[in-house]
Every structure is written in structure tokens, then in C-alpha cells.
Amino acid sequence: MAAEVLPLQGHTVAVTRPDNGEDGGGRLGELLRLQGAEVLSVPLIRFVPAPDPQALREGLSDLRGVAWVLITSPQGAAALSGTLESLGPLPLSGVRLAAVGEATARELRAAGLDVAFVPSTATALALGRELPARPGQVALHLTSQLSENTLRGELQARGIAYRRLELYRTEPAVLNAAQRRSLAGVGAVTLASGSAARELAALAGPDLDPRRLRVAAIGEQTAAAARALGFFSVTVAPHPSLEGLVAAAIKAVRS
To answer: Does domain 12-44+173-254 sit in CATH 3.40.50.10090?
Structure first.
């Protein structure tokens, strides 16, 4: 009996999410390898602490009037956990936590935090539309400096006051020449954020035209950012999750 041919066998897929340097693409890399892919880990962004820890501490220490604290990425959840550990006990009692999706909720729960709400779809749009807040209540969004305005717009349209506090920063990573050469030959590139799409486009040069790479985007917002940047082939995940991103990568290499 012939051996099973896996969907991504013979293809190299680039993982652009930040990598801890130990597992070659993290959980997404694992899922891609299970489908037969060779995984190229080329982080396009990196996360660093907020530049003003005192402002962050003051913002988290005075939550009077805040009904909801919103976390919209696993990185945000990890940053909040680290902030609470470094700054000591903070008055979060009486404030409800909302996570954009189950991956973010798992990070928060692992840190011992209760998650009161997760929307039906892991997007800022769904969180803004479905958050069980009343008009006049205040929602505090803990995020990076590059957060999009989708969540703000949806909440404000419902009469919910929106506040934002910089919990961490998203910065571009630097690729070396070997990474650039390897990226030029991949079957697909996975993108999990508009920030990653922008950094991928910024790699354009004589040795690389990123717009010609097949892109697998985790959701419509990321896909829209990629299309606006001129990417020719963009496949959207059927649902905004790592598993959905793998499905998009399979579809992308077949296109």
C-alpha cells in the first residue's frame, strides 16, 4: 500500500509569528508539520515591553469606572500576566475580563485570571459587537501601539466608552540575507496580523518581491491589509484560528 501523501508534503510554509527560538514556529509550526510541510520560521515582528511601565502601572491601578478589560491577542494575555507578576497585586476585582478568542482566553486562565466573555468569532469586530456591555459603561482595551480601530468603532457605535492602554509594543524584526533567500522560495507565507503583512511588504528589494508570494491570512482584517499592500494571492482562513490558518496554507499552495 502506498504511503499517504500529506496535503503540504513537498511544500515549505513560512511562519511569521514571533518564535521562541526553540520549536521552529511554535504551535503553528507543529500543526503545519503534521500536514507534511517543511516550516521556515521567519518572525517579522517582535514584542517588547511597554516603554513607560509607570504609566501602565498607574493605568491598571486605577480602574474605577471601568466595567470591562479587553484582551485581543495571546500576546496581550501573556503581557498582562507578566505585568501583574512584575508590578504586584492590582485592583482587578469588580472588573470583568473579555478575550477575543479561546487562544487568548487560555493564556489568561493559565495566569489564574477569570475570563467572563469570549465572542462567537475570534475577531475584534465580533468582540465589539457582542460584548455584553451597556451604553455608558467603560471598556479598557489593553493592547499594543499598533492596534487597529475596529474594536473602538464598534463599541463607540453602541454607546460604550472606549479607553486604550499600551500594554506592550510591536516592533519589526530584522531578517538576515539567508532568511530573505529562503523566504523567496516558499510555497506559502502565513500571516496572523496586519502588522505582519506590513512588515512582509516592507521586505521588497532586488532579491525579493513579497507581493508575489502566496499568502495565507488568519482572517479578513489581515487579508484586507495584505490586499491593500498589493499582494496578488491571498487565501483567508475559514475560521480565525491556527487550525484555520493551516487550512488556508493548504489551499494557498494548491492555487
So the answer is: yes
pLDDT digits (tens, 9 = 90+) for 211-243: 999 999 998 889 999 999 999 999 999 988 889
**pTM higher than 0.90 for the full model?**
no
CATH of span 48-171: 3.40.50.10090
Residue entry with cell 475596529: 150
As a whole number of angstroms, the distance between CA 184 and CA 146 comes to 27
User: Half-sphere exposure of residue 40, counting CA atoms within 13 Å on the CB side?
Assistant: 20
Assess contact for 34 and 27: CB atoms under 8 A: no
For the chain, give every domain's residue range.
12-44+173-254, 48-171
Burial of 163 from C-beta contacts in 10 A (0-12 / 13-18 / 19+): middle
- Pairing of β 138-144 and β 66-71: parallel
